[in-house]
Write a structure and sequence with these properties.
There is one protein chain. The protein has twelve helices and ten strands. It is an alpha/beta fold. It has two domains: 162 residues, Bordetella uptake gene, domain 1 (D-Maltodextrin-Binding Protein, domain 2); 99 residues, D-Maltodextrin-Binding Protein, domain 2 (3-Layer(aba) Sandwich), CATH 3.40.190.10. Strands 1, 2, 3, 4, 5, 6, 7, 8, 9 and 10 form a ten-stranded mixed beta sheet that branches.
Length: 333
Amino acid sequence: MPRFAIAASAITRAALAGAAITLAVSSPARAEYPDRTIQIVVPYTPAGTVDLLARALGPRLTAAWGQPVVILNRPGAGGSVGAEQVAKSAPDGYTLLLSTNSPLTTNLALYQNLGYDTLRDFDPVILAGENSLVLAANPALPVKNLKELIALAKTAPGKLNAATSGNGSTGHLALASLNKQAGIAITHVPYRGGLPSLMGAIAGEVPLVFSDIVPAMPQVSAGKLTALGLTGLRRAHIAPGIPTFDEQGLKGFSITAWIGAVAPKGTPSDIVHKLNGEIGHALKDPEFADQITKIGIDPLGGTPEEFSAFLVKEIPRWKQLAQDAEIKVEGEH
């Protein structure tokens, strides 16, 4: 080989080695995730089902990774306020949204000026579970079941009111679907969160409320509310004595709230899968599964890819349900 070729080859090797050293110095390896506090944003008031799930999940993640997990309640606009906050957060795995379907599906049809789009702005992490709602009445209302409520509502169209956790919430959709399927006209009264709506019914501000089953059950047991029926097709594990709407004559009635975790779009895939794996591990643990079943959640699970495909199907389904029920809350966000 010519002498100049050997020299050129040596120079090239030296240049490549120098470039590699420079790259290593200028681009340090990413610290192993997680190395600091993780925030789980719950877009609802405290003590609701999603909040209870988040607070049960937090210690599991802390025990697994040795980092604090903080739960932040950011209610408003049917969950959209908290969802928008997460959508605009850094895509680093340290801010997650744990939410029902409302801000991720129905709100896309209900609000014209959302600050986010589900498929554009989030990376799905895991579909955690689902739960039914319970329709409950203040004891002063002279009804003991759904059939009696429907009969009463038909005698006084528009005069009965029902509280929900907010415009566009699953409870709102359940009420609109009840009105349409039963041929009645119960007026919707949106509150700012599930617990305030429940307290409103107990205080007699409204005679009816669609509520997460867990915070409602102690009030039912104490005689402060009367449970009239469940919105899912199956009876709840923690309240087997409450019949479903389907059982009481509204055949096929099924409005349930699923709960999922998403991260800001662009979160590294390895972090998304690490979150999925640890949350999924908790959901499969019999002790944890029993714990959340007692708060009204049927544990689910699956991969981020499966949750992504699920969202692609769910968004148009819930949009259609909202349109069929003629729910309109445009301009409120």
